UniProtKB/TrEMBL annotation:
Sequence ranges of Basic and acidic residues compositional bias: 1-10, 20-31
Keyword annotations of the record: DNA-binding
Known DNA-binding region: 54-73
Name under which the protein is recorded: TetR/AcrR family transcriptional regulator
Positions of region (Disordered): 1-31
């Protein structure tokens, strides 16, 4: 995340955040504005995709000065990356609870994603943006940070990174399957049985000894 620096706004029409110098950048105002920008970006990226959204569109939707997007996030790419970070629950899911129950937690996470009839903000953002090379780099770094590295930290034994990468493939594969084949077949399956099958798959992927 970009570290905020004290610098003047670029020239432009005044907006709600173009306050007198004595009031500008108060912590409460700054956090409220950042939150509005993140929420506006999440909705716009989810609706139009990365290429269909401009910094000015985000600033207008957040009722903020366009200069603040660059001040708080550095660029549109930086804002996209921070929205991803805020929407992902994977790192917390991996870190929480007993490591022995991790395969089951991952399985239940995938089942919830399969049965979500309306895609959440994160899948919509990715689906509409994944073709952009800049977004592909952001997604690669994001997956490394919130999925692969947390998995490696929970694993003992050899080849931890390869095992984590295999489990990550199982999780991230839901997106392409949804885009190409839809979810009807998986949703027709019994959720408990589907979770049981996925638990076996995640157990085999994460085990240092392979399937037994």
């Amino acid at each position: 995340m970009l570290v905020e620096r004290d610098k003047p706004d670029v020239e432009g029409p005044p907006g709600p955040d173009a306050r007198p110098a004595g009031r500008r950048d108060r912590p409460r105002d700054r956090e409220a504005t950042r939150r509005r920008l993140l929420e506006a970006a999440r909705d716009l990226f989810g609706e139009h995709g990365y290429d269909g959204v401009t910094v000015r569109m985000i600033a207008a939707a957040a009722d903020a000065n366009v200069a603040l997007v660059h001040r708080y996030f550095g660029s549109k790419a930086g804002l996209f990356a921070e929205v991803l970070e805020g929407e992902s629950a994977l790192a917390g899911l991996i870190a929480a609870g007993d490591a022995a129950a991790l395969p089951r937690r991952l399985a239940e996470h995938v089942v919830r994603a399969v049965h979500r009839t309306v895609p959440g903000p994160l899948p919509r953002m990715i689906d509409r943006s994944v073709g952009n090379p800049e977004v592909q780099l952001i997604l690669s770094e994001h997956t490394e940070r919130v999925l692969v590295e947390p998995l490696v930290a929970r694993l003992d034994g050899p080849d931890a990174r390869a095992r984590a990468a295999l489990a990550a493939q199982l999780i991230m594969g839901v997106g392409p399957i949804r885009r190409m084949l839809g979810m009807a077949d998986l949703r027709a399956a019994d959720p408990a049985e589907l979770a049981d099958r996925l638990t076996v798959m995640f157990t085999a992927a994460l085990s240092p000894r392979g399937p037994q």
